[in-house]
């Protein structure tokens, strides 16, 4: 015996080996138990719909991928995290995540903090640096999840294609839905680069404007789900909906999974949003500055903004101008200084972004969506004269900006906070607010404003650097408090973010955050969001509000926005965001339809920027926004909303019942998994650890048998507990060492006494065995087919009276407290009996595997049949189309008035008939070719159906139950 867990459950070496093999089993692809390890190792409270979605992805070993299309807010990132964790546990660790650039950090944080997976964000700078130091395959980081943007993946398509990915996850995958159009360069480039790779696509809006978008997304995953575009359009897009919906639903069922928010309200309670609009009037100096800078930005030729950067930089400068006079003053001064530098030494202007990036933190992500390059030209005399004049203007603007020491919106903030805090208190929420601004200089200004107000206590800043003294103090205190626990990640940047959020939760009152605060932090404890600066990109706004209005929020969320009474364009932007996008009120926030329609939101942002740039008069502004709103309405039409509902939404009762079963199963498997892991750990660690309860232990010394001597000592606990200890899980280095030690132990037959008397609770199956003895043999069976290995534990038990133990009796016997005794010899005849029974059980398992794989094979064959039939329909459609053209040509020839027209008509008819006859002759050959392709594909699958088996004996014991 090695030790004792708190409830006195003694464990033997044989049981430890059994537990170790059971914990590391590879399950059948469609088994609910498959996810137990991934769930147990995650620092997140999972909902049943998330487990269900993760199990759906690749449920068949023949699957080439899946489309997870849950509505916004249901945690598709968590679902993908489970799938990734499962792949990781299976040692398939070349994983790529492609996401919008502004979501890369959020992915990094979610996977690192919730699933403990090592991640790396790759971008051009880090990629090129890797090349410089001799790593010529920067993407191939086996053992690290690679995260990159769409643009990066496109630009490095050859490298993406050459890397043997085990899994590719694509977030906001509706960006790929027009891949069927050759003009969609990014989608088609990625489709070719990721061909033959297993893919998981995530989007809340798989269908927006046309059924062809569904064809595009599905074909991105699997080319053989439907035929070609022509046949799909013929059968589905142009046919009567009632006739095709059922067929289309069946074809989509194996590849597309969607859960609706209304279906999960039992598990995920949602709160509402309440909007508050605070109007303000800028001071005269602010208005003058706005007009001067606006006209400057409209000039045809600007030396400060090279042509390639002009659109982006104009957007940023307009954002800073709207943010505060302090923000634009700093930007104007920086640009003026850079222009002077260029004039002094005729140097290249370089990247104008460098001047603004430190202040406008969203620049990196926004720039990633722009594609520009600038060619540098030597300065002419005219250029020099223009630069001198421009510097003078910029200097004057900056001087005016710095002379303004108070902003109208800054004063309005204090009034808005009073109203908003009162509303939050009325709703029962804590008096905490997060204030978002797009400028770091504005952030500093707001700190000064609030420092002289009743809200001076408990302010914390949050930005991309966090170098202010107050943040450093908060970090130092936090680090001292959590040193020695897994709360300290080792990354100062990540730990600083955690420290500031913890301070805001426990002691703070107001957090003033830049766009860095809109990514990857969870503020469910705060229910007041203040958009001091309102982005024009609706997805950024939704992301901000989503920091607070998310799963775990117990109160309704108040959203405060500011409106400039004098600015017509500002009013229309707010109206559009509020009424069309429904960002600020309701239960769920921004609608899937609209957010999906605008895709990244950057094009929408560009459109608004163009209106500000080109429209001066109220009528011009009104007309431009009316046109923008009309186009948005056309993109989001009611007919397609109904189509989406019929195709992608299951009946609520059916979904709820399935989720209830999934919830029950997940809890059972999770409890058993964690219980076995802790019993095994307690047994192997022995005196090196003190177990305080069934989920917590203190590691006092590093075991002599582990090579991982850098394993930290101290308190360990299972995930989803306090989080103040090291989080212990199967994939932790200590957990892996414990399992390997138990699995490698060589065992000889021994006498084992199982103690039912001291077991807590009653096990009905074991009651008849009390006072009896017998023999038990345990082996591990591995079956591999369809390139998918799965493990089973074989149990053969018999009593001294010759009566066999059922599998349930044997399993339950092995979980009882036990003590081992003297070695024993297994009688030869009995060994043969046990071996024969193990063989029978192995045969039964192989039949189950064979039947299941036959089902998978049948589903795949049906898919290929559908694909082949689609293509044949396309061929027949071409002949029908020519028949139609012949009929029209004959009617036209009959109606012709002149001989020349009649002769021309007859000539056209003969030409069409010849074409039709040739098509008919080729039809059978083309159909035969399709059948040959189908046969070849099925033959490839059949070759994988052959089973390979391996049986390893684990131990044999003589048992007795007391």
Automatic annotation (TrEMBL):
Family matches, as InterPro entries: DEXDc_RapA, Helicase_ATP-bd, Helicase_C-like, P-loop_NTPase, SNF2-like_sf, SNF2/RAD54-like_C, SNF2_N
Superkingdom of origin: Bacteria
Coiled coil: 872-929
Domain Helicase ATP-binding residues, every copy: 57-224
Residue ranges constituting the Helicase C-terminal domain according to the UniProt record: 413-595
Entries under Pfam families matching the protein: Helicase_C, SNF2-rel_dom
Protein keywords: ATP-binding, Coiled coil, Helicase, Hydrolase, Nucleotide-binding
Transmembrane segments: none
GO molecular function: ATP binding; helicase activity; hydrolase activity
Signal peptide: none
Protein name: SNF2-related protein
Annotated source species: Acidiphilium acidophilum (Thiobacillus acidophilus)
